[in-house]
Specification:
14 helices; disordered C terminus; two-stranded antiparallel sheet; mainly alpha; binds Phenylacetyl coenzyme A; about 325 residues
């Protein structure tokens, strides 16, 4: 028995060594490949939180579908919100390839065990917020997700390719809403400025805690899951977005914002991390409302899930194939 244990330990060490060699050589890890348990857990955590964010992220903008100012804007917004549902589904499928079912992950969201992005706990008070979400929130999401296309885990990286293409359309539609408002009446320009004032800081928080407080970054980067640190991406976002705000004639709500010629970047003021912590603890302006909406959707959909499974069993289909199989 002792010899067997030693042999098993040796095999694990060899697997781990080969795994790290693959990661360093940029060879993708696929669902049936050997992977350390920690790598699997890290991916399930990140992919599921990402999937939940896409799904919960439909709610703030969906609030404006019935009140979009023109038929064209309504159609575009409908398509955008539908895209976010699609992103959630690709991501749940990617998590399924790691052995975590969508139902199990959804229950973790509903019980508060799994997180979703802090940004979706803020309310959409005016039509300009729909513009600000597309411009800033999708803009931040793209900044974070473009490097994830090179994630070491194949199904996640490949899902990101399509998601990023769609997010870039979302970002442009948001910017176009802001442009239309900024070229409009005084009241419309004020709406656009007010939306920027409310969404700017929460958008910066989307990138996660500062590097020195990031729990997962170091290991995640060593495994090739994350490609860049939270602060690096946040800085790139600021550098990209400030000139866009200037083009729109809007003012970033940060008195400390200043171009640093020597460093070739914008320096910006301190982020209110106490607010971030409070939102993560469930006390943001809309946390309870968001979870209540997801819980209602889950309960309302029970009859459909049961029907789907009953039909699958009657027809000899497996539960997995009834739900669309896995995304590789
Ligand atoms: N909100 O150690 P780190 C979108 C948590 S999709 C809530 O730095 P990590 C599309 C973190 O989970 C937006 N929690 O963590 C759209 C961890 O807690 P845990 C979502 C956050 O994983 C647009 C703890 O803090 N995107 O917007 C947040 O290395 C418009 C320590 O943090 C993704 O999920 C936060 N902002 O880095 C949809 C992208 N930040 O798990 C609709 C993939 C951190 O130990 C409309 N994810 N935490 O309990 C990632 O890139 C990473 O997971 C980060 C966090 C960068 C979010």
């Amino acid at each position: 028995m002792r010899t067997q244990e030693i042999e098993a330990e040796k095999a694990d060490l060899e697997n781990e060594r080969e795994f790290q060699v693959k990661i360093e050589a940029g060879i993708r890890i696929e669902p049936r490949d050997w992977m350390p348990d920690g790598y699997r857990r890290a991916l399930i955590r990140q992919i599921s939180q990402h999937a939940h964010s896409e799904i919960v992220g439909q709610l703030p903008e969906a609030n404006w579908i019935t009140r979009a100012p023109t038929l064209e804007r309504k159609l575009i917004l409908l398509a955008k919100v539908q895209d976010e549902a699609g992103h959630g589904l690709y991501l749940y499928c990617a998590a399924e390839t790691l052995g975590a079912s969508r139902d199990e992950l959804t229950l973790q969201l509903l019980s508060g065990k799994a997180r979703y992005s802090s940004i979706f706990n803020y309310p959409t008070l005016s039509w300009a917020d729909v513009g600000a979400i597309g411009w800033l929130v999708d803009g931040a999401a793209i900044m974070n997700q473009v490097p994830l296309q090179r994630c070491s885990y194949g199904p996640y990286g490949r899902a990101m390719v399509r998601i990023c293409k769609e997010e870039s359309f979302h970002q442009r539609q948001g910017f176009d809403i802001m442009r239309a408002l900024c070229e409009g009446t005084k009241l419309q320009r004020e709406m656009a400025q007010d939306a920027l004032d409310r969404w700017w800081w929460p958008a910066l928080m989307m990138f996660g805690p500062p590097d020195e407080q990031s729990v997962h970054s170091e290991q995640s980067m060593a495994w090739g899951i994350k490609q860049s640190s939270n602060d690096t991406l946040r800085q790139k976002f600021v550098d990209q977005t400030v000139p866009q705000a200037e083009y729109l004639g809007l003012v970033i709500p940060d008195d400390d914002l200043q171009w640093d010629d020597k460093e070739g970047r914008y320096n910006f003021g301190p982020i209110d991390w106490a607010e971030f912590a409070s939102v993560l603890a469930g006390n943001g302006p809309c946390n309870r409302e968001r979870i209540a909406a997801r819980l209602k959707a889950w309960n309302d959909g029970a009859w459909f899930r049961e029907g789907l499974l009953a039909a699958a069993h009657a027809g000899g289909t497996t539960e997995e194939s009834a739900c669309g199989g896995t995304a590789e």
